[in-house]
Amino acid sequence: MNPQYEFEDLDDYIHDRMSTSDRAAFEAALQSDAGLARRAEALRSEAKVLRMLRNEHLLTQLNGWSTEGEAEKKTDTPFDGRPGAFSYRRWGIIALIIVAFGIVIVLLKNQDMFRTEQVKETFPATPIQKEDTTSTAPVAPTQPIAAEEVPSAPAPNVQKPATARDFSAIAANSYVEEDFSQTLMGSEEDASEMPYDQAVRLYGARKYREALQLLVKLDKNREQDALYLRGYTYYHLGQYAKAEADFRKFRDYTDSDRKLDAIWCEVFCLTKQLPGSRKRLDTVLKEITSNPKHPYYDRARALETALRQQ
Amino acid sequence: MKHQSNNDNTILEALRSKLPLQINAAMRHLCLNEKLKGAVRQQLRALGGGEDDVREMLNQALVVFLNHVEEEKYDPTRSAVSTYIVKIAAQMFYTQRRSEKRRSAMHDRSMDVVKADTEMNPELELNLQHQRAFLDKLLIMTGEKCRQLLQLHGHSYTMAEIAEKLQYKSPDSAKMAVHDCRKKLNTILSDRPELLEELRDI
After folding, report:
1. Which B positions 105-164 lie with beta carbon below 8 A of chain A?
2. Which of A166, A261, B126, B140 is the most buried (most CB within 10 A)?
3. How far apart are CA A189 and CA B183, in angstroms?
4. Among candidate residues B158, B151, B150, B152, the one with its CA nearest the CA of residue B182
5. Confidence class of residue A66 from pLDDT cuts 50, 70 and 90?
6. Which helix (H) or strand (E) segment is A83 a member of?
7. Is 0.90 surpassed by the pTM of this model?
8. CB–CB contact B35 A83 (8 Å)
9. Would residue A270 count as lying in a domain?
10. CA A247 to CA A269: how far, in whole Å?
11. Final residue of a structural domain among B122, B140, B158
């Protein structure tokens, strides 16, 4: 490391603002000082980081505009595309849906008439009560229809409760993969490597069950790494509650680089347990969105919006 | 040789201007263009995508398109802006799906779309996700404020605009804050050669 050169000097060098003599001296120092050379390389890479950050900012803006646009259903000036093909297909699909819907209504009506006739035959003296249309409780399809449950018309606006399947896209979007290979102590596989390193390699090879066996007892020297890896391993084994519990333990660490990431990991574990985990998920999302500096703030906001639309 | 529409020329001029307001206006125009979205939807539906995929892929494709324009990889004489964006979106979606191990089910259908006359490397397009993961790692070390500052600085906003957006007292205060963040970033990247290595590969 060459203390005589500050960040400003490096900046001047990279941006060609040095005099010829200063430049020559700087380049000589670069040859002999690996630390200085690394700092110069880091500064050269800055443009790439800035561009990535710009892209990230643009994506956030674009997502915001898309949401606005969906509300407004804005149409814009034309471009050289083929607008007709999709429109015809869309209208065709809409027409088919209308026809299918009509057929279903006619069939249901016929079925109801048939059922009503049957009921009348079976219970001629029993007056048929009108269905309570304010009730939204769905009737299990396998139950036999009792006389008092016979509907006079198809049940209106019966809302099905959301199922885990309905939330599968949300769960998939919230997942963030982690590259554990960076936490390996050695660069190549060897017989004497520690259980955590072995587990990382097994995880990388998608041998989650074998990896988990090595993570049951956490290595005290690498407790946080192992706990984090175990959370991911449980996740891939579909044991989302256990994964969530492991990630939640990071809240107890006073000093951890992974604390904020682990909170997001809790989120994607919770999305896998929807709809049952909705309350817990809302609480964690609220925790994230209450802190605009949280690295997952934007994603949490987007997830909240998606959940509201579900 | 393709005919270049006035609309395309105006968009390209704005994207090449390096002025954030103009770039934003052009990007917003493309983002809200229902016909472009419809064309992306048509391609992605053929590949098994849903409405969420359409929005996500279109937005990511727009960012990639801007990068291609800036790097002069996009040749307006070969394809119209919309056609090019639709191809990027379809390729990104195909690559993403492939990486999710769903390739076998969609391979036959998707190849018809992807075999189009584009010269882009689909592997490169996945970089946006890789970039986001990398930035998340850096963010833990630089802090969110620096991320916001550097985002705007990277977007070529002036110090006055940055000061206004991030509520600094003056452009000079914003300039000092940007400088401090750049210094911090330099220290982190210098001290963590593995991050520098990863950055090189992105």
Report:
1. 128, 131-136, 138-140, 143-145, 147, 150-155
2. A261
3. 37
4. B150
5. confident
6. helix A83-122
7. no
8. yes
9. yes
10. 9
11. B122
Count other C-beta atoms under 10 Å from residue A141's C-beta: 5
Do residues B94 and B13 share a domain? yes
pLDDT band for B104, please (50, 70, 90 cuts). low
Alpha carbon distance A170, A162 (integer Å): 13
Measured CA to CA in angstroms, residue A4 lies from A28, A29, A31, B62 at distances of 13, 10, 15, 44
Whether residue A80 and residue B3 make contact (CB cut-off 8 A), yes or no, is yes
Q: How far apart are the first and last CA of chain B?
A: 33
For residue B4, how many other CB atoms are within 10 A of its CB?
Answer: 14
**CB atoms A77 and B7 under 8 Å:** yes
B152 and B194 together in one domain: yes
**Cβ neighbours, 10 Å, residue A275:** 15
pLDDT tens column, A156-206 = 444 556 666 677 777 877 888 777 766 666 545 555 677 888 888 888 888
Q: What is the ipTM of this complex?
A: 0.84
* CB atoms near residue A231 (< 10 Å): 27
Q: Tell me if residue A164 falls in helix, strand or coil.
A: helix
The pLDDT score that the predictor gives to residue A192 is 60
Q: Which residue matches tokens 């892929």? A: B57
Count of residues making up chain A: 310
Neighbour-count burial for B141-161, b at 16+ CB within 10 Å, e otherwise: bbebebbbbbbbbbbebebeb
How many Cα atoms sit within 13 Å of A257 on the Cβ side?
11
Out of B74, B97, B122, a domain closes at B122
Question: For residues A202 and B65, what is the distance between their CA atoms, to the nearest angstrom?
Answer: 38
Q: What are the residues whose beta carbons fall under 8 Å from the beta carbon of B148, sequence distance 6 or more? A: B166
Six-digit token string for A264: 């997001």
SS3 (DSSP) at B72: coil
Identify whether residues B69 and B142 lie together within a single domain: no
- Find the farthest-apart pair of alpha carbons in chain B and give their distance in angstroms, rounded: 59
Q: Tell me, yes or no, whether B72 and B135 share the same domain.
A: no
CA distance A80 to B18: 25
How would residue B61 be classed by pLDDT, with cut points 50, 70 and 90?
A: very high
Contact B128 A59 (CB under 8 A): yes
**Domain assignment present for A237:** yes
Chain B CB contacts of A88 under 8 Å are none
What secondary structure does DSSP assign to B4-32, as a single string? PPHHHHHHHHHHHS--HHHHHHHHHHHHT
Residue B4, chain A, CB below 8 Å: the answer is: no
Total number of domains in chain A: 3
Q: Cα–Cα–Cα angle for B24, B30, B31, nearest 5°?
A: 85
Report if residue B94 sits inside a domain.
yes
According to DSSP, residue A177 is labeled -
